[in-house]
Amino acid sequence: MKERIYFYHTNDLHSHFENWPRIRDYLAAQKKQHKEKGEDVFLFDIGDHTDRWHPLTEGSKGRENIHLLNELGYDAVTIGNNEGITFSYEDLNHLYDDAKFPVVLANLFNSNGHRPDWVYPTYITQTAKGTKIGIVAVTAEYPAFYDRLGWIVTPARDELKAQVRVLKKKVDVVVFLSHLGIREDEWVAEECPEIDVIMGGHTHHILERGKIHNKTLITAAGKYGMFVGEIAIDFDHTTHTVSNRSANLIDTAALPASLNEEEEIKGWMESGKQLLSSVEASLTEDLPHDPFDSLSPLGSVLGDALLEWCDADCALLTGGLLLDSLTKGPVTAYELHRILPHPINPCTVYLNGSELKEVLREAQKKEWPATVVKGLGFRGTILGAFIYKNISWDNHHFYIQNEKIDPDRLYSVATVDMFTFGYFFPQMQRAKKEYFMPEFLRDILKNKLKEMQA
């Protein structure tokens, strides 16, 4: 006898709620249809459902995302880096307090080495016919960031292999919720043949029909809710194996419009604004901003804030981080969020003089300001002009605090975490560094504005 089982999956929504009404309506209708036919259906989210760029997620500390998942009756979820390293320890520890589904995650621990009480390393559910489905999940490792927040994240590969070995003995079908990325998913398919289906995310890849890799089905549904994943498997009760598996992506834009969806989308935005309506500072004058002006007044204030927060010798950031100006009068939490929506942390990087000069020469490339930036936590569009604090130059000489850079001296440079990932400045990626977490740029700007009004 063969039993058909359906899985639906979402990943990397990143709080793009503009797609959620259609996703919700479609998944609710599919679940209803399958159940009316007596078919088993399971719904999973693969992480990064939250993203603090959206005011509703920011204002509710992610709790409203969980309510949306509850509403649809998800069967299990895992976390991505946007849940794991953009919320404070306390906020993540309570993010799923109201969840009506299990959070499956095998490679996250408290600093004492114990798993938090809101996660399951694996989870077992079953169909109406008694077929046992084992769910395992791990998330991408960012050990420096997790450590700063008070968590321990263990090697995903090792944890996964250990959990799968035990899980396979207890279940008929093994499903892996992977927030690791496509290359890691391919490795898993080769190294863990016990896994029947991998539902992936993190690298925002699109697999329209999935792909079979070493007899394992690998699937993924892109990003931002542009697609919903659908999987069908046949479990053979005679051979006790999955005899057939297929995958498909549903284009959200092609789905029927949800009733009053525009009003609902606007309502989520307005709810977020209300949650962020507290007045955080008051300005006695406008602070205009031009992302192409390295001496922009608001950019200069942010540069001072960064320099002071990191207590560094100098500071380096860009005008594109700020999305708008601030006007005279009260400044709300929403206004700060609107101009600095990025989940980007301050960072101190330690460079010797020779390395620092290389970075400064690189920063002066004429093409940088208009460069469009995607990823790295950046939620703006262009990089903008570089903003320098305690840094000057003439001809071919660079100065820190008006003193010529000493090639052998170690300098502390206040900057932003996106510059330490290797894309812009390899020197910063290799260097010793200290991340400040859970503070974002908007937090240090808020503190600076309060100081200015005192």
TrEMBL record:
Look up the record and report any one GO term of the cellular component aspect: outer membrane-bounded periplasmic space
Q: Does the keyword Hydrolase apply?
A: yes
What Gene3D superfamilies does the database record attribute to this sequence?
A: 3.60.21.10, 5'-Nucleotidase, C-terminal domain (3.90.780.10)
Query: What GO biological process terms are annotated to this protein in UniProt?
Result: nucleotide catabolic process
Residues of the Calcineurin-like phosphoesterase domain: 7-205
**Which keywords, in A-to-Z order, does the entry hold?**
Hydrolase, Nucleotide-binding, Signal
GO molecular function terms listed in the Swiss-Prot or TrEMBL record? 5'-nucleotidase activity; nucleotide binding; UDP-sugar diphosphatase activity
> Which ranges carry the 5'-Nucleotidase C-terminal domain?
296-417
What InterPro entries does the record point to? 5'-Nucleotdase_C, 5'-Nucleotdase_C_sf, 5_nucleotidase/apyrase, Calcineurin-like_PHP, Metallo-depent_PP-like, Pesterase_YunD
Q: Which Pfam families match?
A: 5_nucleotid_C, Metallophos
Could you say which protein family the record assigns here? Belongs to the 5'-nucleotidase family.
Q: What is this protein called?
A: Bifunctional metallophosphatase/5'-nucleotidase
Q: Which organism is this protein's natural source?
A: Jeotgalibacillus proteolyticus
